[in-house]
Amino acid sequence: MSKSVIVIGASSAIGKLVVDKFILEGWSVVAYCNKNNPFSGKQYKKSNIEVIKIDLQDIGQLEKHLSKSNFSNISSFINCAGKIFPLRYSESSYELIINSLKVNSISATLFIQKLLPLMIKNNYGRIVQLGSIGVKYGGGINNYPYSLAKHLLEFFPLEIKQASKYNVLCNTVRVGFVDTKIHNNIPKKDFDQRVNLIPINRAAKPEEIIGMIYYLGSSMNTYTSCEVISVAGGE
């Protein structure tokens, strides 16, 4: 098994911590970012990291990139992509729903389609998608496009299930309410009211999600596949 991982959505709060964790554990990382590159600091100069800037919403650009990419040494794929489209169900247009699906779901599917046969050939692969606890409740009132896209990450196609016999394990982490800036994009969100719904009675810190992601995305996971696992403080 080569210790090489692709992380998409790597510039998000959770994505950056995922990258940091894999680097700490001695992995080489291909980090996909949109506009921001949080890995340009001195602390990353000696790390085995490659940063690729790409707009996951631009499917044409992504397909062109994937057609030219060699992922034969990649053993793990982590989908941390997440973009909020702050709209109610009744306000969501076709265009914005499709854009949300592109960046939050379809982009990861295209990566997995490229990686799956290579992982099967290597008889090893780990795939982890970051879903949302909101799916459990129908999503927030003002973020329907995001919740819809995250819901798709809980569906495991038959080909994904069959890949388990080749030691290719795919799981989704249903991430709870995390204290990150992404929530600032949702208008009129009452943070205190949201926290009151959590039995532990606080938002998660991003680093509290990372342990489960790393476990499922590394050789530590030897048997768990096609599962949706909540890390949500008891919700």
What this model shows, in words?
With 235 residues, the protein is an alpha/beta fold. The chain is built from 7 helices and 7 strands. It has helices at residues 13-24, 59-68, 94-122, 144-152, 158-162, 191-195, 206-217, and strands at 4-8, 28-33, 49-53, 76-79, 125-132, 168-175, 228-231. It has a 7-stranded parallel β-sheet, with helices on both faces. Helix 2 packs parallel to helix 3 (94-122). The longest helix is centred in the middle third of the chain and has 29 residues, at 94-122. It is globular, with a radius of gyration of 17 Å.
Keywords:
globular; seven-stranded parallel beta sheet; 235 residues; 35% helix; alpha/beta; single chain
Entry summary:
This protein has 7 helices and 7 strands. The chain is α/β, with parallel strands linked by helices and 235 residues long.
SSE blueprint:
Elements: E1 4-8, H1 13-24, E2 28-33, E3 49-53, H2 59-68, E4 76-79, H3 94-122, E5 125-132, H4 144-152, H5 158-162, E6 168-175, H6 191-195, H7 206-217, E7 228-231
Parallel strand pairs: 1-2, 1-4, 2-3, 4-5, 5-6, 6-7
